[in-house]
Amino acid sequence: MTAIITKEQPDADTCRLFVGTSGFSYTEWVEAGFYPSGTKSGNMLPLYARQFPITELNYTWYQMPRAEAVERQRRQVPQEFLFAAKLTRMLTHEIDPQNWPNQAVNYREGMAPLIQAGQLIAVLIQLPPGFHRIPPNRKYLAALLDKLDGLPLAIEFRHGSWANDRVFAELERRRVTLVNVDEPDLPGLFPALDIVTHPDLFYVRFHGRNAKGWRSGNMQHQFDYNYSGHELHEWIENKIEPMSQRARRGIIFFNNHVRAQAPENARRMVALLKEQNLTVS
Questions:
Q1: Is there a domain that residue 1 lies in?
Q2: 87: number of Cβ within 10 Å
Q3: Helix (H, G, I), strand (E, B) or coil at 241
Q4: Cys staple from 77: which of 49, 128, 173, 180, with CB 3.0 to 4.6 Å?
Q5: CB 239 within 8 A of CB 46
Q6: Is 7 inside a domain boundary?
Q7: Is residue 139 part of a domain?
Q8: C-alpha span between 203 and 28 (Å, rounded)
């Protein structure tokens, strides 16, 4: 398997890196000291934005985003703050064969405030582990990408059957970003790669390496992991630096939210990136 090298290869120092966490509204982060004691969920985003320049919106997977609510959130952060937003589960996990095109339209309308403000850096299409690379799924994914065309799309595959050069070539043709992941080394999972399919953006998600808890069905067990400095440095040296040479921007998120390990690891990642003289926003 070979990494796709885009025709345009900016110098490494021109790639701007943005580091943050997958979601920001966790009550346990108050207990862990990331937020001040007594902080309510509605007040977390502006506090988060003082420490990180970007976040992933998780709630857009659980419920269809509404433009009014998205605009209220947008007004809580600086104009230069960026969002990645998960695509609704009705388009990835609970697909209605008849109604999904309407759901795609509703999603686009709900995200309009961020699109118009230039603050939506990516729409994260997170596909389920059971979404194998078989003809019906390939057909649906192609139709979904067509329907969402024009949005800054990024795909996270959860099944290893999609780790295929033909898939990467098609994403490159469509200018869709492949999400590279760090997760446990278990059979069937998508492997850790350094593939760049879009010259504007590479995307990395750190889920943790808790192999014992990964398939427990309990998110507190699944994402309970604290990365060491050595593990993060390996990623920088072997994957992030090479990807930085092939894209203009890179976004890096930590999803190991248990006990506020995600923001702790994000801070550590920022420090290590700066030590390597990479450009961190």
A1: no
A2: 26
A3: helix
A4: 49
A5: no
A6: no
A7: yes
A8: 26
Q: Is pLDDT at 2 greater than 70 in this prediction? A: no
- Report the chain's C-alpha Rg in angstroms: 18
Neighbouring C-beta atoms of residue 167, cutoff 10 Å: 19
CA neighbor of 210 nearest in space, from 187, 194, 227, 193: 227
C-alpha–C-alpha distance, residues 195 and 172, integer Å? 10
For 118-155, the pLDDT digits (tens) are 999 999 999 999 999 999 999 999 999 999 999 999 99
pLDDT band at 211 (very low <50, low <70, confident <90, very high): confident
Domain containing 68 equals 12-280
How far is it, in rounded angstroms, from Cα 221 to Cα 225?
9
Say which CATH number the domain at 232 has.
3.20.20.410
The answer to pTM > 0.90 is yes
Residue 2, domain member (yes or no): no
The count of structural domains within the chain is 1
- On the question of pLDDT at 11 being above 60, the answer is no
Half-sphere exposure of 33 toward its Cβ, with a 13 Å CA cutoff?
2
Mean pLDDT, the chain, rounded, equals: 93
Place of tokens 């490494």: 12
